[in-house]
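so i finally got all the pieces together for this one. its two components total, 613 residues if u count the protein bits. some of the lines might not be protein, just check the labels. i wanna see the whole assembly predicted at once instead of chain by chain like last time, that was a mess tbh
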Amino acid sequence: MEWYWTLSIGIALLVVLFMTGAPIFLAFLIIIVSGVLMLLGDSAFGMVVNSIYETATTASLGTVPLFILLGEILFRSGCMEVLLDSIDKLVGRVRGRQYILSISLSTVLGALSGSAIAVGAMLGRSLLPIMRRRGYDTRLSIGTILAGACLAPIIPPSILAIIVGTLADVSIASLLIAGVIPGIFLAVLFVTACLIKVRLDPSLAPTEEAGETIDLKGKLRAAAGLLPFTFIIFMVMGLIMLGVATPSESAATGVFGAIVTAAYYRRLSFRMLYESVGEAALLASVIMLILCSAVMFTQLLAFTGATAALTEVVTTMDVNRWVMFFMMMLLPFILCMFIDQLGLMLIVIPIYLPILKVLEFDPVWFWLLFLLNITLGAITPPFGYVMFAVKAAAQDVSMGEIFSASWLFVGLTLFGMLIMALFPEIVTFLPELVQ
Amino acid sequence: MIVVRGICRLHDALTDAGYIAGALALFSMAAIYCYEVVTRYFLGVATDWANDTFSNLLVITIFAMVPHATRAGQHIAISLLWELVPSWRTGLTILTGIVGVLVCVFAAWMSFGENLRHIEMQLVTEQNHPLPKIWMSAWISFGFIGAALYFLRGLIPGEAVRPRTWVTPRKTDSLGEI
């Protein structure tokens, strides 16, 4: 069978299996076992197990459970409430302040959890009802939550960045650091757009909000409340940038920082820690199980000869590299409206890897834009699943309102990506500085 | 029925033990790397076992938790079709269960074959302090066979086969999926 048939049938089968609602790891295992049986025979089954074993003992992947644990400790200890309160006080009494609060919160929560869907669901349940009650525009409120949530995979510590780094063989530390400036840049872009919208149409935000006015002392106290969180950020990013710790080690020191923070706020307990560790191990297990299967899928692709053939096709194609770049970004953008971003990443990365080498794009720059792109798919109608998470959290809001809420921020993110494509230094500056 | 109930309770107890082992392994991973950073940068003495132990614990964290993940229905799946065509839900659930049993039993069989090979050939890990490979690879079989049994139990109605847990915390809000 020709390589393109093998590749197309394999991927089509995988997508069909995904769509049946079967766990992703099962879908991968079915394809892998069938593929191994057809290509190599049953004597190669040991190779499948050894591949799983090798992936499951890859130390750099240990960062995934540790970052999840960090987030779990912060969520379960209630430290997030302190964070919410402090940011609320610091935002001040600008007209449309809740929009700024929403974007700041979803950005910070995304950074700490690395989970777009978790941020969407959490703020949809907690902040959105408050904003609507206070007279803020429902669509713009939802849009700010969706926008901030889509920054989660690029702002460190990002689990998806670690997975991309591992599969694409790119420096995980560089990928993590590279997300800092683009994340802040996009957050500022979102806030600016909201403030302009409120200026143009004052009905989008109430004139005066009830509640206490925060004086300078109160703001200083709120800023002090954020200090323990800067300790966590230092324990993760600071130690990587200073060259003291590897990404895996910095994830462990970040966990230590989260425990110290919980203790500082007097919210550390054995029960909380037990629940956090158990839940983090559970989440890590389901993610890593998929990864173990996906790595074998990558190896199988190489066995079929599809990887090498695809590279040859791209090298002989007379297409501008920027057209290729556009196509390589368009595909995951469309597919991520339908398919889970993790599943899609695991299919697309092994196919993109050889092409990327031919096109000679900076891998850190490319994969960061890729990460942003796949999350953008998750907030784009009609199937972006972060929108479904917000819908689940806010039952009385129609799906139509959520769809229309997202377009402004989808456009802004695309504009931001265009700027990053034209000025790659926005992405590459920090990693190069650290190197 | 008593025998079935007994086997199911034993299965649940082993899954709970796996849950505790996975949680302990994860906490140990964090502790070991913190210790490594402190000894390397503050005491100037790098350990020669931290990386290896970390890797070994990672495989335990992943596979000791797999049966519990299946029991709790926590595996990541794409529910798009379920939401678009709710009437297919029951059929797809049964299909997933059957596929789950078959695939996990097959994976466990492959893994068990490798476990036997590791024992027969007395294979050890390629690390500074080599350990028998079976100590780690056995967890892969544990994970798949435990998951296969939960997929099977999910297909059978009745109180006797309903999953139980004694050690896992009640489900509260968490980060959910990535």
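The two ends of chain A are 46 Å apart (CA to CA).
Chain A touches chain B through 77 residues (CB under 8 Å).
anyway lmk what u think
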